[in-house]
Amino acid sequence: MKPVRKEGYKFCQEVGIPCYQTNGNCVLKPAAFMDLAQEIAYWAAQELGFGYDTLHIHHTAWVLSRMHIHFHRPVNWRDAVKLYTWHKGAGGLFFLRDFLLLNEAGERCISATSSWVVIDEQSRRMVRPEELSNLMQLDYEVEDAIAEPAPKVVMPKGVEAEPAGEHRVAYSDIDLIGHTNNARYAVWAMDCLPVEEAAKPVKDLYINFNKETRAEETVQLFRLRQENGWYVEGRVDGKSCFVVQLTC
Fold first, then answer.
1. CA 100 vs CA 14, 52, 67, 120, 243: distances in Å
2. Closest to 67 measured CA to CA, from 85, 45, 44, 43
3. What is the DSSP-derived secondary structure letter of residue 37?
4. Quick one: DSSP state of residue 234?
5. Residues 6+ positions from 133 with CB-CB distance below 8 Å
6. Distance of CA 90 to the CA centre of its chain
7. Residues 114, 99: contact at Cβ < 8 Å?
8. Distance between CA 99 and CA 37 in Å, rounded?
9. Pairing mode, strands 80-91 and 10-16
């Protein structure tokens, strides 16, 4: 992967899509996009002075809380693409970051917006945005990849979701913060679906991270078919740890 470069207030990375990030139709998986997005987000934040290394000194860390990904057109194996990201400042309890993935023709393939929080690495509690405002203050105008911040997602009321198995959090799920990596939840969600359903093109993916999960915890998974897609929820001891909404 080529280095990240700065273009105005945006950061850009040129990426060649490898086969292991695509599905049986040679199309980039949603979780693979999340992997790419979190990597460029770490690099961009580092360049702006509030990345992993800077926060780690103060025993704090970035955690993704919500994300909305819109797929305009497929991204395929061996495509040469450009991935952009930019910091959008604070919005309520969150810090906002957008992403845009373009193909060689400059066409928009994926737009995404994300909401992040900073946690104390020891207490695992959220650090309020005002405590970090001087470090991450935004004093210039930016565009929106998606105008509205990623919304809250909950399972529809009054409809019983069906059990879809369980997942024991293992070595391959854990990231540098010591909990399940955000993209792994998208993997679990897609794996809950019938294979023929998971293979269909996704229009939008909304995901909320409600409670971190850690090694050796068992996550009970539930799914609910809706007219235009699916909901998938993971629960630990009856409490929601993540919810995904997929629309097709």
1. 12, 22, 13, 29, 23
2. 85
3. H
4. E
5. 90
6. 17
7. yes
8. 7
9. antiparallel
What is the C-alpha separation between 189 and 58, in angstroms, rounded? 34
Whether this model's pTM surpasses 0.90: yes
H/E run at residue 192: helix 182-192
* Residue 33 parent element (H or E): helix 30-47
Distance, C-alpha 245 to centroid of its chain: 13
Please, are residues 197 and 230 in contact by the beta-carbon 8 Å criterion? Answer: yes
Token representation of residue 93:
């309890």
| Proportion of the chain above pLDDT 90, given as a percent | 82
Tell which phi-psi region holds residue 129, choosing left (phi > 0), alpha (psi between -120 and 50) or beta. alpha
| Nearest in space to 34 (alpha carbons), one of 175, 166, 231 | 175
Output the six-digit token pair for 27. Answer: 């199309």
- Quick check: 176 and 198 in contact, CB under 8 A? no
Token digits of residue 119: 């946690």
Spatial distance between the Cα atoms of 62 and 117, rounded to a whole number of angstroms:
6
Q: What is the mean pLDDT of the chain?
A: 93
98-137: pLDDT as tens digits? 999 999 999 999 999 999 999 988 999 888 766 666 666 6
